[in-house]
Amino acid sequence: MRKTNALALAALGTALAMSLAACGGTAGGGGDKTTGTGNTGTGASAAKHNDGYTKVVNANDAKGGTLKFAYSDEPDSMDPGNTYYAFNWNFTRLYARPLLTYTAAPGEEGLKLVPDLAEGLGEASEDGKTWTYKIKKGIKYDDGTEVKAADVKYAIARSNFSEELTDGPKYFAEYLDAEGYKGPYKDKNLDNFKAIETPDDYTIVFKLKAPFSEFDFLVANPQSAPVPQAKDTGLEYEKTVASTGPYKIESYEVGKQFNLVKNEHWDQATDTTRKQLPDRIEVQMKQSAEDIDQRLLAGQIHVDLGGTGVQTAARAKIVGDAKLKDSTDNPYTPFNRYAMMSTKVAPFDNIECRKAVQYATDQVATQAPWGGPLGGDIGSTLMTPTTVGYQQYDLFPNGADNKGDVAKAKEALAACGKADGFETNIAVRGDRTKEVQVAEALQASLDKVGIKASIKKYPSGDWSAQYAGKPDFVHKNNLGIMIAGWGADWPSGFGFLSQIVDGRFIKASGNYNMMELNDPAVNELLDKGIQTTDATERNKIWGEVDKKVMESAAFLPFVYEKTLLFRPESLTNVYVHPAYGMYDYTWLGVKQ
Amino acid sequence: MVAFIVRRVIAAVLMLVIVSVATFAIFFLIPRALGQTPEGMASRYVGRDATPEAIQGAVKRLHLDDPLIVQYGRFAKGIVAGQDYSLGPRKAECPAPCFGFSFNNNQPVWPTLLDRLPATMSLALGAAVVWLVAGVSIGVISALKRGTAVDRAAMTVALAGVSLPIYFTGLVSLSVFAYTLGIFPGGGSYTGLTEDPVMWFQALVLPWVTLAFLYAALYARLTRAGMLETMGEDYIRTARAKGLKERTVVTKHALRATLTPILTIFGLDLGLLLGGAVLTESTFSIPGIGKLVIDAIRGNDLPVVLGVTLFAAFFIVLANLIVDILYAVVDPRVRLS
């Protein structure tokens, strides 16, 4: 899972259309967990609220000017091979071209993979264990030299098999048949990396340990952007990335300023998903988050790079001003915010006690800390509405107004043998204000049915390694409920579900399946799904997995998270890319 | 006098060593004493889905499995002799004084500190001029107009200055003067003095005034209290009895005596600010030492926190040293004590 907005979960056409049609700014109230309160797109000529969700706003291909981004932090790295920040999987495309990418379009069209560096999508062998890609001839780096297949092989070797580049995901290391390979920094001979073959300069062949029908999604990850071995400077490569995109790096002062200028060796004819409109692109880092909002509203900058939306103060100002609100979009982020109940901590080892929590929870109260309906729709499933495979259902309806069903909760408690309630602990990341408020809301809900929950706060830095992600610690400290969130790295049910529900992924530390659910039926479905080549059939399986896990009552969804993005008038070609859950940074231009 | 200075310099160096040991212990010894493992620490500095092998690699690369005394020794040796750091295909040299490499962004700490110093100095020195001039002037006028509307108004403003936090006055000033009236540039506009002196000045006006507002209020109150006390002294009455002009009495006799403790505090305040004006730099997004350290604390970037702490301690110790020496110059009895 990427650190902030993991790669947006794609929508099935129907899911996205449903969510788009259902949006509408329901004021007050908690939204409807069975229909959602998504986003509206209007057909008015002047840009309206959420227009960027369904069409390109301020379409204008005029060139020139400086596109200004600001960001409240600094990313893990600007090296496409060493970053796990969601916005960077969007932003690095300005200077790095992976084998595949997503179509540049709003709505469901934007979820389709298209060739980028490659000539076409991957060709799988019959057994699904070998994937072959042909790369386009004549693609050049910013120094004019031609990209070769070996550069893609090297890029994957360095990003997945070195001790130094630790920030990006390691999916290739996990799925490629590369047992014993020590990485290019310890073993300079790339021929020893036998899991990838390059029979000629324009062909690259991946050999997997097991069939993996969604391999195309993996090579849409920026780690497949080519890196010439001679130019690799390891951790410092982020300052001198060999560019294949429409822009190249002019300078990078780490943690301060990142500047891009046009790459004269980029050829629009080879690229269907990017534009090259501004003369230069500037990113200021480590800026005050509140000040970024003020500068956005004043038109002094164009985009908040993080893509996570405006802060509370600016949100209040925008909501109270119809004109400002017309300049915003309210898309889903890839995240589901939820709690997991540990099936190994009593009394949650009894499904009826878990059901009692499901019914007792006031989901309007747990939605409030996220900012009400603008901050997310009330959830009832694992996958969010913008995940391929999402199916809408609600196994635990908790009242018509979603404010909890005390009677049903008490019935479940009686069935659990705890008619008078019980005591438990809610674990939460203490430095995440919204999650603490959610824990408090949940605590109040449970108190109404006699469940006395104490809130235990832990630091987010060690949350996964030392506390909620460490089953031994969870058991010893009787952590029955853990507040968490999850977004996937690629838009499919497998990308979303595998890490959090596969019982074989329960780790001694760094565990995300905090339910400790190890259901053979779920595991088998996951295996079956990833080996199924037919997309429709595969997506149906993800829906089955979702339902099977919800039947365990160990997963308590709170909200399908949404964000509020502001688009200044001076920004052109703006639309929310569904694969990233934020504006498409490779399309933006500025008015002169 | 020379012996006195030597003694104070040795004491200052010892103080820096103690600060470095104490800071190191806070960030490395206490977590370990509370059960933190090297792997637990390393897991903060690798990707979220890092494999156990990647975490072990980070443990080795950051030397987190070494005994603490060895880790401190390496840190201290780096300051004196420099050290190397693996970047992957090659090693990076970090010449002395090397304060280590950032765990988060793999940059050497010392050049980062030097890079951030001009912004912090620009902010601190400019604000110091503003608050010293404004604070002392207001304090003197207030003392001379004691009990009048002017005094009461000045002290009310001073009370507001002391009470209002910088992140409030800063955001309000940005909202009004940068984003509404457009008189000054907004946050994140800081530019180096040598790069663009005009923009440097324009971008710093609001931060100077915001920071100086707090300190000027303090200094006005201190000056007023000092002036009131001094103006009641016998030698002031004598000066007046000699027929000196009131301006001379105030500036040459009263103010001079009042300024001595003010300047002492000024030296320490300035030393403190040179170690980073955290709130002002954060509010105005000025890439100074204060912004650096607050970001490092948020990111558990221990080498940077350690480096900034020592850097800030150096300025405070230096300011103390200068004050001590100046005292000795002014008052020979200090040298003997």
From TrEMBL, chain A:
GO cellular component, one term: ATP-binding cassette (ABC) transporter complex
GO MF annotations, alphabetized: peptide transmembrane transporter activity
Keyword terms of this UniProt record: Signal
Keyword flag Signal: yes
Signal peptide interval: 1-21
Keyword Transmembrane applies: no
Residue intervals of the Solute-binding protein family domain: 112-502
Any GO BP: peptide transport
Protein name: Peptide/nickel transport system substrate-binding protein
Species of origin: Planomonospora venezuelensis
